[in-house]
Amino acid sequence: MKTYFNLLKFAPSIRGYVLPFAIFMILHVIFSQLNFVMIIPLLDILFGTTQTSALDAGQIPELSFSLTSIRLNFQYYLSQLVQNEGAFSALKVVCITVVGAAFVSNLSKHLSDRILETIRATFILNLRQKVFDHLVHLNLGFYEKKKKGDIISRMTSDMQEVEATVIHAFTVLTRDPIMLIGFFIILFTLSAKLTLYSLIIIPAIGGLIGALIKKLKKDAEKTQKSLGQLVSYLEEAITGLRVIKAFNAEKYIKDNFLNENKFYAAAVRKLNIRRQLTTPLSEFMGILLVAIILLVGGALVLNQESTLTASGFIAYLAVFSQVIRPAKSLSETFSNVQRSLVAGKRIMEIKEMENTIPEKKDPVEIKEFRESIKFEEVHFAYESKPVLQDIDLEIKRGKMIALVGPSGSGKTTMSDLIPRFYDPFQGKLTIDGVDIKDAKISSLRAMMGIVTQEPILFHDTIFNNIAFGKKASMEEVEKAARIANAHEFILQTENGYDTEVGDRGMKLSGGQKQRISIARAILANPPILILDEATSSLDTESEKLVQDALDHLMQNRTSLVIAHRLSTIQKADTIVVLNEGRIVEMGVHEDLIKNGDGLYSRLSEMQGIQP
């Protein structure tokens, strides 16, 4: 139940709800059970056995706060009515009392349910928002280990499972135990001996249902895990549909999905069969229990071994039959909540995931970039695989630094360390002498604009993609688009700047998407630029337009450029050549290309670049 109580922490502060909820809940329990207290006098009136001994003796029962006292005083009042005005008058009083009690009971239940609905709505709002906020703040390493489909499954289906059950379980766990206590107080008042017999039998039935619930939890874990895998297959299929079709891999993908789909269907079937078994099982056990009580109690009454009258015994059976309802509700809730607890556990795993890029309590706010960025003996590895080793580099303000080298040499990783997407394992990285681990992350990243090889656009308008995260006017967005050579093609789209770009910008070409990304970076006006192979995937015409936009963007800025096409970085102030995570050469284009034995010279020769 630890997971359950951890989930309830996301419920709104219930301080203001506790008192009204408690009042309405108690009123509901009291008045719903009051009707069963009325059964005995009602039967006595109908069968003409109303007790008048107290009246005949001239004794008025003592009034106290107990069920026995209330019952005796009510019987005394009814006996007076029967004697003075007739049995029908007494019957009317009983009926009015029953209807009044039922009205108050149901009104109180409705009001308590309204309070719980407020708690439920705010609970799921808080939970979903807190988990999403945490997902956004988690470092990129988390997403390299987790499947996107599994994360989406936890945020959708798991969240729905929790929403459907957690607050309902809270209602049952607060209301039904109170009702059970109330019913057993009445039962003990009517016959302590008979109630003790029932308490011997109930634990055995509870143990049987408990064993079934334990198995339900294991089934639920398999089901939720399989559903996450299904969503992962779906997400991968949609994302990679072009590749799937190009390689005629439809059958392979469909078979993978089919196998997991069959496993999930079997797991759900098994889970639901066991979950549905709890209802008929608890109902049968309840009837069995009532039958046993009927047999034992009937024997006691027939053998005159109990003080129960015939009407009292019928009332006892009526009350005892009501014990089954909250007991059954509790057993069903415990069975249904197992899948929600598994779903809740999967959600809490995300919420409790530690961010490996923490921010200090009193971070240094970087307000401007004045001098340089320095790598000082930096080492980095993905898990146990070394990626960067002994990196020493200074990037001075206003200079263009190019990173080149074979694939896997560590170029992108090196650029990812600057905005602190990752932290170095050894060494440090400073900006104007401030270790970036001591800097406020938001102020650090505000210094930078990043344009990647694959432009990231959102399913929104062109205007909102350019103004992403900022409040900008149309004039500012249009100016940035003009500098990025994007204004003309934007005007040719269906709705201009209000045109939606589609999922991941699918309505635009690669060059158009890249120019939108550059316009976004221009609008942000950062002093530091990181360009990660921004033109490598474009055709010649698009590359020229994008390169021209990049040249405008890099003016008077510090730039770190990652490039495979060496022709695009020949004017760099410093070219840094990486190989297997180490800096093997450094210098300007003319000097590096003259070194016939150097890696840069060999790469240039392969691309047809002459000295």
Tell me about this structure.
With 611 residues, the protein is α/β, with parallel strands linked by helices. Helix content is 63%, strand content 10%. It is built from 22 helices and ten strands. A six-stranded mixed β-sheet has the order 6-7-8-3-9-10, sandwiched between helices. Strands 2-1-4-5 form a four-stranded antiparallel β-sheet, with helices on one face. Helix 8 runs parallel beside helix 9. The relative contact order is 0.08. The model is unreliable at 51-57 (pLDDT under 50).
Question: Any chance you could write out the topology, listing elements then pairs?
Answer:
Layout: H1 2-8, H2 15-37, H3 39-46, H4 53-56, H5 67-85, H6 87-137, H7 140-145, H8 148-155, H9 157-190, H10 192-239, H11 241-246, H12 250-302, H13 310-351, E1 372-382, E2 385-396, E3 400-404, H14 411-417, E4 426-431, E5 434-435, H15 441-446, E6 448-451, H16 462-466, H17 474-483, H18 487-491, H19 510-524, E7 528-532, H20 540-554, E8 558-562, E9 574-579, E10 582-587, H21 589-594, H22 599-606
Parallel strand pairs: 3-8, 3-9, 6-7, 7-8
Antiparallel strand pairs: 1-2, 1-4, 4-5, 9-10
Helix pairs in contact: 1-13, 2-6, 2-9, 3-6, 3-13, 5-6, 6-9, 6-13, 8-9, 8-10, 9-10, 9-13, 10-12, 10-13, 12-13, 17-19, 19-20
Keyword list:
611 residues, alpha/beta, ABC transporter transmembrane region fold, Rossmann fold, 2 domains, 6-stranded mixed beta sheet, 4-stranded antiparallel beta sheet, 10 strands, elongated
Count of folded domains: 2
What is the CATH top level name of the largest domain?
Mainly Alpha
Number of strands: 10
Structural class: alpha/beta
